[in-house]
Design the sequence.
């Protein structure tokens, strides 16, 4: 099977040869006079390692048209012309400016989502409170009507005619329907 040169997600870092030789010499010599040189070499090494590794492929390493993969752009363009589909580049072709812009935009979208979620929660709690208030008013009205009916029953019950009480209850119930 042929070996292909594929990029990896672990990039090599180029460290200057002079710096490596200086650091290697510290391992073999244990003199106090080299402390300043060690600190300087250490700081230089930290600076080198802090720099981002260069991307080996600023251009796509392959192209996709539909579900077909092409290793050369010319083949992909011919296939795209024949099928009418769009060419999609594949590989580690990151644009750090675009990534930063998208991260910033994502942050704004998250803030907007949180703001809308807060407003929606407040709206639902207010709406729920209004519905509860209306239900409380309806129940209060029903309770007042029942209290009035009981008061009327109490008055009619003291009279010796039970039919008057029965007629009063029937008329009160018929008014509700």
Sequence:
């Amino acid at each position: 099977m042929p070996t292909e040169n594929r990029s990896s997600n672990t990039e090599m870092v180029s460290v200057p040869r002079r710096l490596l030789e200086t650091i290697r010499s510290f391992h073999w010599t244990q003199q106090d006079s080299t402390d300043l040189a060690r600190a300087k070499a250490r700081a230089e090494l930290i600076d080198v390692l802090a720099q981002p590794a260069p991307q080996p492929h600023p251009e796509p390493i392959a192209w996709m048209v539909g579900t077909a993969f092409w290793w050369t752009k010319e083949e992909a363009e011919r296939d795209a012309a024949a099928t009418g589909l769009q060419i999609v580049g594949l590989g580690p072709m990151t644009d750090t400016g675009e990534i930063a812009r998208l991260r910033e935009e994502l942050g704004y979208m998250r803030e907007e989502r949180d703001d809308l979620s807060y407003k929606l929660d407040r709206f639902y709690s207010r709406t729920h409170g209004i519905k509860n208030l209306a239900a409380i008013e309806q129940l209060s009205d029903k309770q007042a009507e029942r209290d009035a009916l009981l008061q009327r029953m109490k008055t009619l019950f003291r009279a010796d005619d039970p039919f008057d009480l029965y007629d009063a209850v029937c008329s009160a119930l018929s008014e509700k329907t």
